[in-house]
Amino acid sequence: MENKQTPLGYISFSVFAWIVGLLIFFPIFWMVLTSFKTELEAVSIPPSFISFDWTLENYAEVQERSNYFKFAMNSVILAVGSTLVGLVFAVTCAWAMAFNPTKRTKDALLWMLSTKMMPPVGVLVPIYLVFRDWGLLDTRFGLIMVLFLMNLPIMVWMLYTYFKEIPTDILEAARMDGATLPKEIIFVLLPMAVPGIASTMLLNVILAWNEAFWTLNLTTSDAAPLTAFIASYSSPEGLFWAKLSAASTLAVAPILVIGWFSQKQLVRGLTFGAVK
Amino acid sequence: MKRVMGAALCALLAGGIAHANAETKLTIATVNNGDMIRMQKLTDDFTSKNPDITLEWVTLEENTLRQRVTTDIATKGGQYDVMTIGTYEVPIWAEKGWLAPLDNLGADYDVDDIMPAIRSAVSKDDALYAAPFYGESSMMMYRKDLFDAAGITIDGRLTWDQTLEIAKKLHKPDEGVYGICLRGKAGWGENMALITTMGNAYGARLFDENWNPTFDSAEWKAALDMYTNILGNYGPPGATSNGFNENLSLFNSGKCGMWIDATVAASFVTNPKESKVADKVGFTEAPCAATCTGANWLWAWNLGIPMGSQKVEAAQKFIAWATSKNYLELVASKEGWANVPPGTRMSLYQNPKYLEAAPFADETLLAIDSADPINSTMKPKPYVGVQFAAIPEFQGIGTTVGQQFSAALAGQMSVDQALSAAQSSTDRTMRKAGYY
């Protein structure tokens, strides 16, 4: 059946999409706006929209108090490091499940996903003790291991979905031509799955960047990423919204830029397999 | 040649080891508030006097800090050398042997100058287990201009019934002014801090002598009736979301006729940079009811050293610097007397320069002096603490009961239902914990 959209329907849909888009973007916009207000303006009722005395003093204060670049560098290392390590394991795991499934493959996939359903605080003390005994507290290596293990189920699931789309015949043809297993994966499978791998990596980078439980609980200063940087600007007694907004703006800026430029791959990755 | 290189290597290693020995790095966990941030900015004063010690600050939000330092100290993680902890944690952790006693703070530290109420809250068997950095009680802040316009005068300490009558007179939501602002957000350090002091004032207590909860008593009913009535009818809309900061914003915007909260708020509401009503604020003690005992809370942020720390000597040097009388003078010389951390040293309240700079000093001193963590209820009680019971179970109990009281304020359940739920949930917790 042909699906014809009327101009009115098109306009209505566009307006609706814009409204939803603006609603989603509004908190980020408000955060950026608040970062340029004084603390008094930030909490004034009714709130001032544009007509206030714009100030950069919050950014100056944040720069004076914290070493932003140290936190940002830790975030980059943790996000990229955990993604790369995770990719090595997830690609091999997803290959096995997609091309050599057993009758237990589906169960294994579901079990992997079920580990994401446990609240992290439930294993805080055991993990903390392991980290303490192995000397991993406040180390980037320890955090990379935790973040990679935490996101591994999602990476495996995403890559499994992509790999299932690739015809097995192509891999068999490569084998017939004498390709070994590593060559089959590196030179045949991976080039065909580049879009899927890219979106998996992007999603994992974002998840690792935003992770705020383990990064707060297993670090003190040396390995503390931007989540710890933001947490230091929330105050139980005293006005802090403007400074917190400035810190948050600085923290989300890099990931916002990456997300903006890679949104095509990201959307494709997130919706892949949703419509078949 | 090999010998020369070997000697050079040895010299380098020795130098490195000597350097490592020379520098002790202290990692300090702290909360983000004005006084603590000011201390971080004044770090140079300490390091210039102690060139062999460097300081690494880890600033966290209060709840995150509490979870983080509790995990670390309970597992002997050793991540922090100095921890910022509240008066709730100090007696519990000292009892468990998690804190090192502060027995070497220096000859000129003058421990007797620490306010008696605060000192007793951070001591065990007369030994100091944490040093107070700043202290607070609770009091009433009110709008003098609105009181004058309504013809209200304060004669002596108010009762909650009188406060209710005043709230009725001041409550003009059409003009954007609410009679009273109080904490409504659920949590042991949020609404429970206030409601427990109200309970004390009405003659209630958290536990009887045998650790049985007493939320089914007539005193608690009277206290919670007053709380839900005064805040529900004469407070701002959505009061169940309001904690300290939300009420501070409302008061500073001129929306509250009265506000009963931490004495530390006084410096915020009188600061023209933060408050639209800075020159219109009056201060008086928190209201009483059947008694004034325990009608205002006591809290202090303190610096402690985890037991087993390898850097106790350096950590004690730092704590002695940060909580000394000299530190107060240092802050005053850099930021003015109004900005020194309040509520810990008696000498501060005898200093004319401070009294002149801080119009709220007398009321703050009065409030802190009258709060006694040992004798804070009309009837005998087995626990230490004014607005909390210093037992490990209280955090969970306070949060659960706080949620039930918040639900009563929101009208989701009646006062009787909330008290009954509080009684049964607390009874269950205490039974499980083996108190009876």
UniProtKB/TrEMBL annotation, chain A:
Question: What GO CC annotations are associated with the protein?
Answer: plasma membrane
Q: Which InterPro entries match?
A: BP-dep_ABC_trans_perm, MetI-like, MetI-like_sf
Query: Could you say which protein family the record assigns here?
Result: Belongs to the binding-protein-dependent transport system permease family.
Gene Ontology BP annotations: transmembrane transport
Domain spans labelled ABC transmembrane type-1: 72-262
Question: How does the record say this protein sits in the membrane?
Answer: Multi-pass membrane protein
State the compartments where it is located.
Answer: Cell membrane
- Keyword annotations for this protein? Cell membrane, Membrane, Transmembrane, Transmembrane helix, Transport
Keyword field contains Transmembrane helix: yes
Q: What is its main location?
A: membrane
| Chain ranges passing through the membrane | 7-30, 76-97, 109-131, 143-163, 184-209, 240-261
Q: Which Pfam families match?
A: BPD_transp_1
This protein is called: Carbohydrate ABC transporter permease
TrEMBL record, chain B:
Principal cellular location given in the protein's record: periplasm
Keywords tagged on the record:
Signal
Tree of life domain: Bacteria
Q: Please report the organism this UniProt entry assigns to the protein.
A: Thalassospira povalilytica
What is the residue range of the signal peptide feature? 1-20
Q: Does the keyword Signal apply?
A: yes
State the family named in the UniProt similarity comment for this chain: Belongs to the bacterial solute-binding protein 1 family.
Q: Where in the cell is it found?
A: Periplasm
Q: Does the keyword Aminoacyl-tRNA synthetase apply?
A: no
Kindly provide the name given to this protein in its UniProt entry.
Sugar ABC transporter substrate-binding protein
